[in-house]
Amino acid sequence: MESVVRLAIVLGGSALLALAVGRAADLFAGYADARRRDTPLWGLLRRCRTPLYVVLLTVAFRWTYRATEWPPLLDHTEGVDRFLLLCLIGGGAWLTVRFVSAVVESSFARYAARARDAARLRRVRTQVTLLTRVTSVVIGVLATAFALVTFPSFRGLGTSLLASAGIIGIVAGVAAQSTLGNLFAGFQIAFGDMVRLGDTVVVDGEWGTVEEVTLTFLTVRTWDERRVTLPVSYFTSRPFENWTRGGNELTGSVFVHCDHSAPVALMRAHLREFLGTRSAWDGRGWDLAVTDTSPTGITVRALVTAKDADDLWTIRCAVREELVDWLTREHPGALPRIVTAQAADVPRR
Predict the structure, then answer these.
(1) How far apart are CA 199 and CA 191, in angstroms?
(2) 315: Cβ–Cβ under 8 A, 6 or more apart, which residues?
(3) Quick one: which H or E segment has residue 209?
(4) CA torsion, points 146, 151, 156, 157, in degrees to nearest 10?
(5) What burial class does residue 239 get, using C-beta atoms within 10 Å of its C-beta: 0-12 exposed, 13-18 middle, 19+ buried?
(6) Facing residues of 289 across strands?
(7) What is the pLDDT of residues 73-117, one digit of tens each?
(8) Contact 208, 241 (CB under 8 A)
(9) Structural class in CATH, domain 250-334
(10) What fold characterizes domain 180-242?
(11) What is the pTM of this model?
């Protein structure tokens, strides 16, 4: 009975002490966040409280469980020590990943608050996202390696594995050729500034916005809310359109087929008047000209500019609707016509 009471006192006290230290750290981070609103780091560090609790509890139990003098624990000290060490390695890796992510996100948030170039901001965000994920993978691999070393059987196996590292590396490289290709393609995309989060791209005839970039795949959100997932190696091996590569501003065209009698000068004047009433037009440029002719009619092309792809789509649709409606109301004879009457007989001489 005495050993059970001692077990409850020692372990309960250790747990309370660890939770108190973790709670104090969380309250301090919350207080610092309230005082320094311009520094998001403290608020982001509060995400570390759960892995911090795990690390503190593991350390407290590892130092104090022998003081319980409870026979079931003392008879299996080797297994208990290994279990607590594994918990400590896992909790430490978890805490490290959360801490690194908080520091990186805080740095990016402060940079974003000062940045004025949207294209550069998207590039930095893409690089930060990929670097954070690479760091998480590296920490996870190192934690797994340290955990395996705690088992004696793996220590003996380590020598033979190191001796055959060259052969294993060749075999793994051949077997994971596609995966490694995507991995290096991800770095090429991030630091080669080929495509960034938020870019408007056209791939396989699908128009959309880059929503997610990982080490192995890239997700494009299309205009109809579908998600197209592609391996990152696609963007390094095939051509694709990036509408925001050099900036968000775009120029679009609208084609209207008309009869030869269409009043092109009046259409041009009406287009200029109409664009002045549309907020989607950014005012950089416009034009209207006859670009083609055929025996049955002419092709009129209207050029408009917009600050981004969404506004360009809006203004193109509006211009197309307005020109057709204006011709129908004001100049119906200018609409394309199909001649079905028979040709007049030519008198013989």
Answers:
(1) 15
(2) 252, 275, 278, 280, 281, 304, 306
(3) strand 206-213
(4) -70
(5) exposed
(6) 301
(7) 666 666 777 788 888 888 888 888 888 888 888 777 777 777 666
(8) no
(9) alpha beta
(10) SH3 type barrels. (2.30.30)
(11) 0.48
